[in-house]
Amino acid sequence: MNTHLVTQAATIERDETTGDLLVRYVDLSSCRLEDSELLTGLEIFDQSGSRTLLTQLKESSSPLDESIQVFLKTWAARALGMEVPVTDELEPPTTTGEVSLALAPALVLRKRGAFALVEYYNQMISQAEEVSAKTPLGLAQLVTAIEADERVAWLESTGATAPSELAEDPLFPLPANAEQSKIIERLGGDSGVVVEGPPGTGKTHTIANLMSALLARGQRVLVTSEKSQALQVLRDKLPADMQELCVSITDLARGGSQELNRSVATIAERKTSFIPEASERTIADLTDKREQALARRSTILESIRALRESETYQHPEVAPGYSGTLAAIVRRLEEQRERLAWLPGPLYDAEPPLAPAEFRELVRLLELQTPEHGTRAEQMLPALDTLLPSADRMTSLFDAVHRPRLELPAQTQDLVDIIESVDSGTAEQVLLQCGTLREAVDIVRALPMDYQQLANRVLAGEIDHLWARVPELDTNVQDATRCDRAVGSAAVDAPGVSRRALQTIEAWLARLQDGAEWKGRFRRSAEQKAYDELELG
Predict the structure, then answer these.
(1) DSSP per position, 434-451
(2) Can you give the residue ranges of the DNA2/NAM7 helicase helicase domain (predicted)?
């Protein structure tokens, strides 16, 4: 049976220009020894001797390196405990039944094996079998239930950083709300936190903050995802300086990626140019700036809290009528701004507004000030237009006084003399009555002419006998109403009347309204004669 001991991962690419298929080694890959996958369990194979040669194998650039022939001879002596001939033939060796080694390079196409994973599991088993080794927390949780505080203590006993230290004062490069901040708080009291949610709820945003906070604590962070696109989105959310430190291995099977090359180069460059003293100074400077920013933030928050508290604080009466919240006091001041504003005028003048004698008088009056005098500040003088007539009215009154009097009738002159001799109160009452009389005259003048003539006759005394009977009208109307109720109503049947008869009746009715009188047999009008001929009874 023939098999290959030394292998290295390779890829096949197609040259777009020539169409050739090019076989190239995978970037950052190295030679791998695959003896344990085939020879484990055989008596002639010593696996411990094989492991001591892994460092020597890494010095070879590829399975085609000239040092591989020397390595194979050394491997045969240590792993097999025998000398095995090594030929430099490039052709596959013929099967002879004897153990032999040959360079014989070949391109092997096969599925990716699980040998590395098996080896990793073997290392885990060997470590777990050691008496002094402590069982890993993840493995222990598979067989028994462990509470959060026990999990934290378990991690600390293995030398891991305490979760509470990782969650203390985290450094988030991106804004974080209360829900996102609680995640790091929960991480401080447990060995792990599960965060679930639909797309677009900020999970990637939260992971970026957690990664940055853990990296700032000197931790290594492993991020896994089913799809490489999710890792790329997460990488883009990190600060630029941290993006260069993220090593992505999602594209190794396709020959690596530019991001991986840049990350490795950046890490190597920073490690080479790292100066502990300069780094410590930078950290101290940034820490001081952050503490100053936190102090300013605390001061601003305290100011905001004080302002909010002042908005609801009920102040006692600082002045008569001014109490309650600041907003209420300000509203009251705004309502009285015009009344309590400063007096208009210049604040400063070259000459004092008061002479020395006036100033001494002012001081004397102030010394005589009493509490009763202080109440006058709340008093107000009435407006002049409510006390005195208008300027036009005063002018007309003065003109009337100075105008020469005309010759008045004796009755009018007597009335004027009477008015001049009364006091001011009586004169005001007369003036009010005259106003009432004028309003009544205006009402009468607005009536039809018949009513105006009737009013003139009443005022002239021509129909006093009729006017004297006016108070009796109410009594007469009430008697007529009572008699009408007593008589009651009766149904009257009248024969049909022609249109000509109706016209005759209407003509006779109009004649009566014009003042015609009912005549006997002689001197009757034509309308009355036509009505009598109807014989209506």
Answers:
(1) HHHHHHHHHHHHTS-HHH
(2) 177-294
